[in-house]
UniProtKB/TrEMBL annotation, chain A:
SUPFAM superfamilies: CoA-transferase family III (CaiB/BaiF). This is Formyl-CoA transferase. The keyword RNA-binding does not apply. InterPro entries: CoA-transferase_III_domain, CoA-Trfase_fam_III, CoA-Trfase_III_dom3_sf, CoA-Trfase_III_dom_1_sf. The lineage of its organism: Bacteria, Bacillati, Actinomycetota, Actinomycetes, Micrococcales.
From TrEMBL, chain B:
InterPro entries: CoA-transferase_III_domain, CoA-Trfase_fam_III, CoA-Trfase_III_dom3_sf, CoA-Trfase_III_dom_1_sf. This is CaiB/BaiF CoA-transferase family protein. The keyword Disulfide bond does not apply. Keywords: Transferase. SUPFAM superfamilies: CoA-transferase family III (CaiB/BaiF).
């Protein structure tokens, strides 16, 4: 039996880029009917990520976009027309949840502020996703993921002692705000089901980031005193007695250079975390078996942290001789926490656990082709959730939603299209045949 | 009590058994009103000792266990395991981060769980999942973040044509990745609960991180390219990209993203930089279009670096935002404690500890859904070990 607990839940999705679409990908994968609303003259900019400039399917050929938006339906309407706004209002009256990621003024500008939404549907859940939230002195501040990461503290919590912040190599807070929005959504949907009440959820990336370093904020004075010893690179802590924010203490604890996997591999590392004395004894024994006897006098975690620079150098001499997956296999076989530092390529091509658990699933997209798309990662009763081979090709589901959700007849649907309400007059559509798109 | 019953997850009872991975899922459930009971060994959960410990209290334990209940059980004895089974028989959900062998030792097979409470949800959050070749492997914060893919994308600029040093962010994020999706799955499952057997939700932290690094996987799958790390900005296929993190006059940093520098933003930058006499450096025709700016961004960045180096970070942040530029100061934890936006939105809540001291607890990603922090009569702080033993007595009576 397929796990689709949100089956019967309808979501009107105005979100763009990464954060909001991450939330609605989760909801769609759990069974919700997610209706992604756009106007083709100003579509989700995410459609342009890694798109093919070839004319056919120009809106629909982005691989990253396809992955992030699988399982949703695409609805096109011009919200700046009277007819368009009436259609949106009719859909809102028949939805469980509306989600958007605009700045605070956009929905109000369309006459669809929270007060109007409640008039249309008193049990509606309305989730907004923004950088700073819709209230407070910085509500008008503008941001992208990296901006929010900087202001919320997660950038500063990443780096090597004494160097500038390394930050995050991608928009962590786009992903995590999306996940937090999915969680808040299902919680509000439960309340809606139990009590019939609606909810207004105002999600900010600032608060997402700050909540993800909660203990650092609770101990900010101590961190200030640490100065440049914080953050500690890849170590658990930089020096003995320092408060660490991985919530575990040990050494060796780092990513170590390993033998390349091939001639063009210039980026091979293995993460190793020794968290107990027993793990240390095991590691020292293993390294000695391979001709790298450990330095003496390192029986306590305090000794090991005080001499971790020396330990890192010693361990690297051995790890450079071994390929990263092989090294992780060997260490884990002796009960030492370790993992190859995985690139995107490693995760797709070389990781036996991701393969066995079918985290990436070959799925056919009419324009992108057959590719390994990200599933929603969970095994339910031992089985992965199947990736949904349905895609929000721009405007592909407008007519079926007008008919199926709103009960419009053929003539009315044709009129809306002809008068430029549901598709811009004169704009060509993707020229793949519908049959092929539907396959 | 009436206010408590209005919390979104009121009425859900969860039993939590954790070693530092599943605690975040439990916190999310607890803060929205689920009754989360930590079933701890008689000596206490190991996470009670997680560093940093300040004035005898583990800071992460206090943060990740807000509002939870605690019972201490002699799990090595049959009587203790019987008490655990009694707790489970009255629960909707078991959330744990135990391996299958640890569950077997506690006598908690899925078959047992389903017979104790038909329809129960078993939410398992473990480093590598409960199936697959790595199911018995050990994790750590570093191992999960590096294995899952965060570290390969994060770190410093390349040196001499070779990828630069990889860095793994601190903050305990491995548990956050697994926990937030796990909590989402559990609440979704309880929207349409089963009436018999057990629903097993097996969440692997490794799997979640593997799909949570934006383009790193897609770039390989669709373009057969691998990302290279860059200091304070996104990893990219290119070895060199324009920087967007700059040192300010006060020694602090500003994150000034140079992507999406459209005509309006570029005009705002020129107008602002003119105050320091730097605008003429940006007047060249080659900067007049989006395409031209992208192609010549290294030159624009040189001007930005010079401008930022002459001003303090706080002023740069507020002035940039006044001009609708999506830039921000790289704030430290001590800045966040005084952040006017967080304060205006009541992000922090003071809770009373058992010894009478007050502790400021950071809040949530969202505003609007009521949490236990909004309900004065609710016990918000983390529980003392075994503090809620009366739950066991009630179980015995019923």
């Amino acid at each position: 039996m397929n796990f689709q607990p949100l089956s019967g839940i309808r979501v009107l999705d105005f979100t763009w880029n990464v954060a909001g679409p991450t939330a609605t990908k989760v909801l769609a994968a759990l069974g919700a009917d997610v209706i992604k609303v756009e106007w083709p003259l100003r579509p989700d900019p995410g459609r342009a990520f890694s798109f093919s400039p070839v004319t056919p399917g120009v809106f629909d050929s982005g691989g990253f976009f396809a992955d992030l938006n699988s399982g949703k339906r695409s609805f096109t309407v011009d919200p700046n027309t009277e007819a368009g706004r009436e259609i949106l209002e009719e859909i809102i009256a028949r939805c469980n949840l509306v989600i958007e990621s605009f700045s605070a003024r956009v929905m109000k500008g369309w006459g669809l502020g929270w007060e109007r939404l409640q008039e249309l549907n008193e049990s509606l859940v309305y989730v907004s996703v923004s950088g700073f939230g819709h209230t407070g002195p910085h509500a008008s501040y503008v941001s992208y993921g990296p901006t929010a990461q900087a202001v919320s503290g997660v950038t500063a919590a990443s780096g090597r002692p004494g160097r500038e912040p390394a930050g995050w190599g991608y928009s962590y807070l786009d992903v995590m705000t999306g996940y937090q929005a999915a969680f808040a959504s299902v919680a509000a949907l439960r309340q809606q089901k139990e009590t019939g009440s609606g909810a207004r959820v105002d999600l900010s990336q600032l608060e997402t980031g700050a909540s993800l370093i909660g203990p650092l904020l609770m101990n900010a004075d101590e961190l200030e005193a640490q100065g440049e010893a914080f953050p500690p690179g890849n170590h658990a802590v930089e020096r003995w007695g320092q408060a660490g924010y991985r919530y575990e203490v040990g050494a060796p604890y780092n990513v170590y250079p390993t033998a390349p996997q091939g001639e063009d591999d210039t980026d091979a590392f293995c993460a190793i975390s020794v968290l107990t004395d027993a793990q240390w004894q095991m590691l020292a024994g293993l390294a000695a078996e391979h001709g790298h006897a450990a330095p003496d006098g390192l029986d306590t975690v305090r000794d090991r942290i005080e001499r971790q620079a020396e330990l890192d150098a010693w361990l690297s001499d051995w790890t450079r001789e071994v390929e990263k997956f092989e090294l992780a296999d060997l260490l884990q076989s002796r009960g030492i926490p370790a993992a190859a530092m995985e690139s995107g390529k490693d995760r797709i091509e070389s990781d036996p656990s991701l393969a066995a658990r079918e985290v990436f699933q070959a799925t056919e997209h009419p324009f992108v082709g057959v590719h390994r798309m990200s599933s929603l990662p969970v095994l339910v009763d031992g089985r992965p959730l199947p990736a949904k081979a349905s895609w929000p090709l721009l405007g592909r589901h407008t007519d079926e939603i007008l008919a199926g959700v709103l009960g419009y007849d053929e003539g009315r649907i044709t009129d809306l299209r002809r008068t430029g309400v549901t598709w811009p007059t004169g704009l060509p559509r993707a020229d793949k045949p519908v049959e092929e798109v539907a396959a | 009590m009436s206010a408590y019953s209005e919390l979104p997850l009121a009425g859900i009872r969860a039993i939590e058994i954790e070693h530092g991975v599943a605690h975040y899922a439990g916190k999310l459930l607890s803060d929205l009103g689920a009754e989360v009971i930590k079933a701890e060994p008689a000596g206490g959960s190991p996470s009670r000792a997680a560093e940093p410990v300040v004035a005898g209290r583990s800071v992460p334990f206090d943060y990740y266990n807000t509002g939870k209940r605690s019972v201490a059980l002699e799990l090595d004895s049959e009587s203790g395991r019987a008490e655990l089974r009694a707790l489970i028989s009255a629960a909707d959900l078991v959330v744990d981060d135990l391996s299958d062998s640890e569950l077997q030792e506690l006598g908690l097979s899925d078959e047992t769980l389903g017979s104790l409470r038909p329809g129960i949800v078993h939410l398992s959050v473990t480093p590598f999942g409960a199936s697959g070749p790595w199911r018995e492997r050990l994790g750590s914060d570093l191992v999960s973040l590096a294995g899952g893919g965060v570290t390969a994308s994060t770190g410093y600029d390349s040196v001499d044509g070779e990828p630069g040093e990889p860095i793994t962010p601190t903050g305990g994020h491995a548990a956050h990745f697994g926990g937030v999706l796990a909590a989402t799955y559990a609440v979704a499952a309880l929207l349409a609960p089963r009436t018999e057997g057990v629903l097993r939700l097996d969440v692997s932290v490794h799997d979640v991180i593997a799909v949570s690094t934006e383009i790193a996987v897609s770039l390989w799958e669709f373009g057969k390219q691998t990302v290279v790390r860059h200091t304070g900005r996104h990893a990219a296929a290119d070895l060199h990209t324009p920087e967007w993190q700059f040192r300010c006059a006060d020694g602090r940093y500003i994150s000034a993203i140079t992507l999406y520098m459209n005509n309006r933003r570029f005009a705002a930058i020129k107008e602002w930089f003119a105050e320091d006499g730097l605008a003429h450096d940006l007047e060249d025709e080659k900067f007049a279009t989006d395409k031209g700016r992208v192609e010549n961004m290294h030159e624009i960045v040189a001007v930005m670096r010079s401008f930022f180096g002459g001003h303090d970070s706080d002023w740069l942040f507020s002035e940039a935002q006044r001009r609708q530029l999506p830039w921000a100061k790289v704030q430290l934890p001590q800045d966040l404690v005084d952040d006017p936006q967080l304060r205006a939105r009541d992000f922090f809540t003071s809770v009373a500890l058992p010894d009478g001291r007050l502790q400021e607890i950071p809040g949530h990603a969202w505003v609007g859904l009521p949490t236990i922090f909004d309900v004065p009569e609710q016990r918000m702080r983390a529980p003392e070990l075994g503090e809620d033993a009366e739950i066991l007595a009630v179980q015995k009576r019923s």
